[in-house]
TrEMBL record:
SUPFAM superfamilies documented for this protein: UDP-Glycosyltransferase/glycogen phosphorylase
Pfam families in alphabetical order: Glyco_transf_9 (PF01075)
Keywords: Glycosyltransferase, Transferase
E.C. number(s) listed in UniProt: 2.-.-.-
Gene: rfaC
MF-aspect GO terms: ADP-heptose-lipopolysaccharide heptosyltransferase activity
Lineage: Bacteria, Bacillati, Actinomycetota, Actinomycetes, Kitasatosporales
Protein known as: Transferase
Top-level taxonomic group: Bacteria
GO biological process: lipopolysaccharide core region biosynthetic process
A GO cellular-component term linked to this record: cytosol
Length: 335
């Protein structure tokens, strides 16, 4: 059986699809992951994925491309050429799977399933309804289950990635704590000043600190690192970042892709979690974690990209001392 799993949005979202992918892979001969450009690096890290199909869908993302009939036809042709017998379309609770399901139908995929609030007409063979309060990883696995796909024996359903490389040449020898100050959504970002304070205080408390970030965040990581941390800004492609996070005693970051990557390599997380999306759905999954931030703030559940409350109180009330105490709590629990 040739199977396709679709998750067309971001890096972290694709990582959360990992357990569902492994359930599909347990029954399929070949699994293709259909994703957007932002999710492609994560898709290539997932166990069970044999091939990756990349397309920037006009219904996904903050600045989606215009609808281009030629591009839609070309994508449909690529799906048809794949000869897929079945497709699982994964989305967040606020998204619709039906545009992707329509292309899959036009491509001749025989069996299509998804979690859908909207009436699907003839677009879905399996219409799942997610249970309230389920984490995104669990909701995806539930949808796979509704299609008859189950995890293989011995698979605990945690997030997972393929084995990352040894990153000691980057991080140096000895234990360390990672601080990842950036996030793709401004409303989920702790201020650079607070991050720098936390790095300095962690170093004062005797922790070796490694600061990570993308190439576009090098100025941020340089500032946050000061003269007390190892600055890896712009030096960690996703697979390398997985190795850096795997080697850490704990990771301090916001609700962003590296939090899920840390969970996928089994590293405890101090999560600076702005409640614009609910933590029960998006928090670090199946790893020890401490959640910081006012989860009852006025921005809760708004899905705002920019903080709608002056002063960003949900996160700015968190202090560097709170972070150090949380790191020490996780390390003590791990003893």
């Amino acid at each position: 059986m040739r199977a396709l799993v679709a998750r067309l949005d971001s890096f972290g979202d694709v990582l959360l699809a990992g357990p569902a992918v492994r359930a599909v892979a347990a029954a399929a001969d070949q699994v293709t992951f259909w994703c957007g450009p932002r999710g492609e690096p994560a898709a290539r890290l997932l166990p069970g994925v044999d091939d990756v199909l990349v397309w920037e869908a006009p219904w996904e993302g903050v600045r989606p491309p215009a609808v281009d009939p030629a591009a839609v036809r070309a994508m449909t042709d690529r799906l048809r050429a794949g000869g897929y017998d079945t497709a699982l379309v994964l989305t967040s609770f606020h998204q619709s799977p039906l545009p992707a399901a329509l292309l899959l139908r036009l491509a001749g995929v025989g069996r299509v399933g998804a979690d859908s609030t909207d009436h699907p007409g003839s677009l879905l063979d399996v219409r799942h309804r997610r249970l309230p309060g389920r984490h995104e990883a669990e909701a995806a696995l539930d949808t796979a289950g509704a299609m008859g796909f189950a995890l293989p024996p011995g698979d605990d359903g945690a997030l997972r990635v393929n084995p990352p490389p040894d990153t000691v040449p980057l991080t140096g020898n000895g234990p360390y704590v990672v601080v990842h100050p950036g996030a793709s959504v401004p409303a989920r970002t702790w201020s650079a000043e607070r991050c720098a304070e936390a790095v300095a205080l962690l170093a004062d408390a005797g922790h070796r600190v490694v600061v990570t970030g993308g190439t576009e965040e090098r100025r941020l990581t340089r500032y946050v690192s000061g003269d007390v941390a190892v600055d890896l800004g712009g030096r960690t492609a996703p697979r390398v970042l997985a190795g850096v996070l795997r080697g850490a005693e704990a990771v301090v970051c916001g609700n962003t892709g590296p939090a899920h990557l840390a969970a996928a390599v089994g590293t405890p997380v101090v999560s600076l979690f702005a409640p614009v999306v609910p933590a029960e759905r998006w928090g670090p999954y199946r790893v020890p974690a401490v959640l910081l931030g006012d989860q009852g703030a006025p921005c809760a559940g708004t899905r705002a990209r920019d903080c709608p409350v002056p002063g960003h109180p949900c996160l700015e009330q968190v202090t560097a001392a709170d972070v150090v105490r949380s790191v020490q709590k996780l390390l003590k629990e791990a003893e």
